[in-house]
Amino acid sequence: MRPTVIYALERAGAYTGALTSADLRFDSAYNTYHHQGLPPGPIANPGEASLRAALEPADVDYLYFVADTEGGHLFSRTLAEHNRNVARYRNLLRQQNGQENPSPARKAQKEP
What we know:
The protein is mostly helical. The protein has 3 helices and 2 strands. The protein has helices spanning 2-11, 48-55, 79-96; strands at 64-67, 73-76. A two-stranded antiparallel ribbon has the order 1-2.
């Protein structure tokens, strides 16, 4: 859902490179936090590597992912693990925004 908000902000020339809670309220048909279902059009076109990955998916056992605030992602096998990663992500965002200084979270495993 966040990628659709980023896309909406980019279309409006308002994306700063980091999402805030205010950004999640941005009024756009592409903002899937406010509009159920699919956005009115694609937010990206797949490249050759994406098409190949869809045809020959990696042999992995994780089901979930969330951003890691460093340009990568945290992957998890269970919903409980994913929820911990989401909480870690939110803590990191608050820390980056100077809202609080949370204690360091354990490093989650990153996909290479």
